[in-house]
Structures are given as C-alpha cells and as structure tokens.
Amino acid sequence: MLPGNSLIIAFSKINLTVSKLLSKLDLQGYITLSYLGGVAVGMMFDYQYYNHFAIDIFEYSDILDFLLTPVRNLEVIVFVLATLGIVWTLFKLDDIWKKRSPNTYNRFNLVKWQKTSRPFMYALSVILYLFIAATIYGEEKYKRFLKAPSPVSLTFESGSKTISGSLIGKNKDYLFLQDADSTVKAIPINADVQEIVIQEKEGK
C-alpha cells in the first residue's frame, strides 16, 4: 500500500471516530467543545498580536490566562460564534443539496478522490482558516495600537520609580508596555522585579 493511501485511510478512520463522538454529545458537550475551541482561537490570536512586539506570550502566560480568553475578549467570542454559524450553514446547505438533488449529490460524492481525501481537506481547511484569521486579527489589532495607543504610568509601592508607556496588553501576571523609545517591557504585577526589557529600539 502506498504511503499516501495509508495517510488517507488514517484520516478517514479519524474522521469516522470524530463523527461518532460528536453524534453522542449533548448540548452541554457542544458548549464545552465550543469553549475549548474559543481557548485555542484565543491562543492563536494572542500569539499573532504579541509577535509584532517580539513577545513570546506563551512564556509570560499560564493556562488560566488562556482559559479566560473567551470571557475577556469579545472578538474571540464573536469569531467562534460566527464560525459555528458558517459551519452550521454549510452542513444545512449540504443536507438541502442531498435532499433536492440526490443524483447530482451522489455523483459528486462517489468520486473516489473526493471521498478518500475529504477528511484531509477538512483538516487542512480548518488549519488554514484559523491561521489566516489569526494573522488578520494580529495585524488589525497592531494597527489599532499604532493608531491609538493607550498611555499609562506606573508607580511602584516604594515610590522609587515610575514607568510610562503605551499599554500593549496584560494578563494575570504582567503588563506589557512600549515606552517612548519603542522599548518593549514586561512589568510583573506582583513581584519585586520592577521591569523586564523584552525589545529595545535598534541603535539605542
């Protein structure tokens, strides 16, 4: 058996297994699955945005930060709901096509390459869709930061130092700032360390 055929058969078995599991889920199961999908989307969106500042957001975050992403980020919620709506619509259209024009539907779905490669096509489409969406999100959010930065000024409890800059973002443990010299800093919220320089302006 050719390696390509083995891969297609493996994808087909995975697709069948996933289909069986999904068919057994109740409403609560679908809600949980959708929320976990939102967590994954939030991780990809955050990575693409912070990557513009050379920040490896995974290094400064823990699992709780990502678990709360769908709750804190309205854009992630809208994206997930819109995606679910698109998927539901596509399945509905597929069902309508099958009922109204069964002969055409069967001819199309009996094509060998279409049957065997469908799981692979689904997986590749989902990965590509999420990558493109995350890239666009990161670009647009970065443009909003450049166009309308949010200035902040932090004074530590000791009063010995004040840090000012534009707020890039924050999570449970850190504030991320860019100062007037375009230096990117991670400020620990509850720590003796006053700042961590992530990226300094070139030539400084």
What's this, in brief?
Helix content is 61%, strand content 14%.
Describe this structure in words.
By secondary structure, the chain is of the alpha+beta class. It has two domains: 3-147, no CATH class; 151-199. Helix content is 61%, strand content 14%. Strand 2 (162-170) and strand 3 (174-178) form a beta hairpin. Helix 1 (3-23) crosses helix 7, helix 2 crosses helix 5 (74-100) and helix 2 packs across helix 7. The termini are far apart.
Topology (elements, then pairings):
Elements: H1 3-23, H2 27-50, H3 63-67, H4 69-72, H5 74-100, H6 102-109, H7 112-147, E1 151-155, E2 162-170, E3 174-178, E4 184-188, E5 196-199
Antiparallel strand pairs: 1-2, 2-3, 3-4, 4-5
Q: What's the structural domain tally?
A: 2
Let me know the largest β-sheet.
5 strands, antiparallel
Shape: elongated
- Element order, helices and strands? HHHHHHHEEEEE
Structure keywords:
single chain, 5 strands, 5-stranded antiparallel beta sheet, about 200 residues
